[in-house]
Amino acid sequence: MFDPMSVWLHEMPEQLRGSMCLSIDLPPQYHHVKYNAVLICAMGGSAIGGDILSTAAAQQAPCPLLVHRSYGLPAWADADTLVCAVSYSGNTEETLSAYHAAVERGCLRVVISSGGELTRLAQKNGDALISVPGSLMPRAALGWLFASLALALEEIGLLCGMRKDIRATAEMLEEMRPELVPENEVRYNPARALARSLQGQLPLIWGCTGTTEAVARRWKAQFNENAKIPAWHNTLPELDHNEIMGFDLPEEILQRIVLILLRDPDDPPRLQKRMDITRALVESRIHSVVEVPARGHDPLSRLFSLIYLGDYASYYLAKGYGLDPVVIPRIDALKSAMTAGEQGEA
Ligand code: F6R
Q1: At 65, is the pLDDT very low, low, confident or very high (cuts 50, 70, 90)?
Q2: pLDDT at residue 342 in the model
Q3: For the segment 270-317, what is each residue's pLDDT rounded down to a tens digit?
Q4: How many CB atoms are closer than 10 A to CB 76?
């Protein structure tokens, strides 16, 4: 049977490579501007590429790269702020609201979308528009959405080395792919093995601020949307100041928690030490702990190596439960209910 999610997962490296062939021409007025910030306005599967980029570019970006997940814009955003409105469908109301606020404040705008109202507005207003291929689920279009954003910021001179890093990341994922695909049996397939260990359990995913935070968020969202299970994520060092106390009760829930520790060699030594100590303090209170090491020779490849594994694991978990990883009926119902009866409303 045709299984679109497995095809989309398979194609993540091709998405990254394909982004380098998209038309990413930003007119001269976007170049050589001293922006006070880049504000990436997006929700859900369209926002996570912004989180990854803000981590990957933190050491070189000349201004903050911030992800804004809500209506409107923060009060400080002004004509010196570059607004990147990213919505795969182009119809997400929070992102459209942020876009309208950006027009009102006179911000320069980059729009990344596969169509919808956002594309229409970008064309009408003469914004820089990057059109990514349609017919995917937004969360399955991460390669397109992340890379087109990174390349747009490189194109206007805010970032450098993105093209090279994206190419290296695609190579890394291609190297991992034969291990992760459904044809590879469970004992040689780390994603299937992880999914098996999560069957009937609840994942709690921990990363580190500055390295794997966005990955932890991605894993949580993929377990929610693909496997339809509750999942939580948090980051060190903050969680050492609160969450580690939450392992006393209720016992029956704690005994169902699988703690997933995302480990990146880029994690600063003090955070690595914290992770070891924290693990030892909570391990006996929960079902089990799984450590997942990042792979790759550069920071972006390492982030995507973890994302690729987590995406596949959430897919196999859905399959293990006999669920369709593609559909998201509760999100669809929410969006319909939010717009119901609005025709003719003031
Ligand atoms: C669906 C998904 C959702 C959407 C979100 C925003 O696959 O991941 O989180 O990304 O509802 O919609 P878009 O991405 O169309 O702006």
Answers
A1: very high
A2: 79
A3: 999 999 999 999 999 999 999 999 999 999 999 999 999 999 999 999
A4: 10
Nearest CA owner, ligand 1 atom 15: 89
| Cα-to-centroid distance, 325 and ligand 1 (Å) | 14
Tell me the C-alpha distance between 81 and 84, whole Å. Answer: 10
- Check: CB of residue 145 under 8 Å from CB of residue 88: yes
Closest ligand 1 atom to 95 CA? 16
Residue 330, SS3? helix
Q: Starting at the edge strand that comes first in sequence, how are the strands of the sheet with 257-263 ordered?
A: 232-236, 202-208, 257-263, 288-293
CB 43 within 8 Å of CB 94:
yes
Q: What is the pLDDT of residues 326-339, one digit of tens each?
A: 999 999 999 999 99
pLDDT at 200: 98
Q: What is the CA radius of gyration of the chain?
A: 20
The ligand 1 atom nearest the CA atom of 46 = 14
Interior angle at CA 5, CA 337 and CA 122, nearest 5? 55
Instruction: Say if ligand 1 is within 6 A of residue 301 CB.
Output: no
Which DSSP letter does residue 76 get? T
Q: Compute the average pLDDT of residues 179-188.
A: 96
pLDDT beyond 80 at 344: no
Q: Indicate if ligand 1 lies below 6 Å from the C-beta of 139.
A: yes
Residue nearest atom 16 of ligand 1, based on CA coordinates: 87
Q: Which of 8, 40, 46 to probe ligand 1 with, by most ligand atoms within 8 A of CB?
A: 46
For residues 293-305, one letter each, b for 16 or more C-beta atoms within 10 angstroms of the residue's C-beta and e for the rest, the string is ebbbeebbbbbbb
